[in-house]
Amino acid sequence: MQHALVVCVIAVNWAHVASQQCPVGLLMGLGDAICQQAIEKAGLKKHDVIRTVRQASFGLVIGGPLLFAWYRTLDKVIKGTGVIKALKSVAVDQMVMPPIFLTLFYSAIGLTSGLSPAEVVDKLKQNMKPTLITNYKIWPAAQVINFYFVPLQHRVLTANFVALFWNIYLSWMANKGRGSDKRETITPET
């Protein structure tokens, strides 16, 4: 009986984690697909399915678990209640998570796309500052809402609403200037 109970607890916990991770993977893949079709105008015949799977896989294997663990950690570490706790959480979140997440994202996407480690470092140098600037224009306000109004167990899913648009931007940033991609792109600023 005790063994069955342990199995049930593990299954419930795994289902809860998976319910947070799977949407991150799906939305990262959807963000890339939208980027290819709406921003890069690839058309269905030239859609790079491997690129979409690569980005979805990052969300499923790295992004989802990282964000799930991060929100739980923040909730335990940041003391206080109400608006003060939300503001502290946003401050810590925005100082710590964007550089880590973006470094992992650009590194994983670059390496799995065939870039050398030196090329990945160049991509990080090229993309990190503009991506962080854009991050700080979007995420602090979204995270204040997320940390103040949303219960812990729903924060990853709630952030995914904003993340869909963010994922389109990340896909564009990660893949712009590829030698094989001669399609004209439209910058987010235009």
TrEMBL record:
| Species assigned in the record | Acanthaster planci (Crown-of-thorns starfish)
Q: Which domain of life does the protein's organism represent?
A: Eukaryota
Where in the cell? Answer: Membrane
The protein's predominant localisation is membrane
How the protein sits in the membrane? Multi-pass membrane protein
Q: Which UniProt keywords apply?
A: Membrane, Signal, Transmembrane, Transmembrane helix
Similarity annotation: Belongs to the peroxisomal membrane protein PXMP2/4 family.
Report TM segments: 56-74, 95-115
The residue range of the signal peptide is: 1-19
Q: Which InterPro entries match?
A: Mpv17_PMP22
Pfam family membership, one:
Mpv17_PMP22
Name of this protein? Mitochondrial inner membrane protein Mpv17
One GO biological-process annotation of the entry reads: regulation of mitochondrial DNA metabolic process
Query: What are the GO MF terms of this UniProt record?
Result: channel activity
What Gene Ontology cellular component terms go with this record? Answer: membrane; mitochondrion
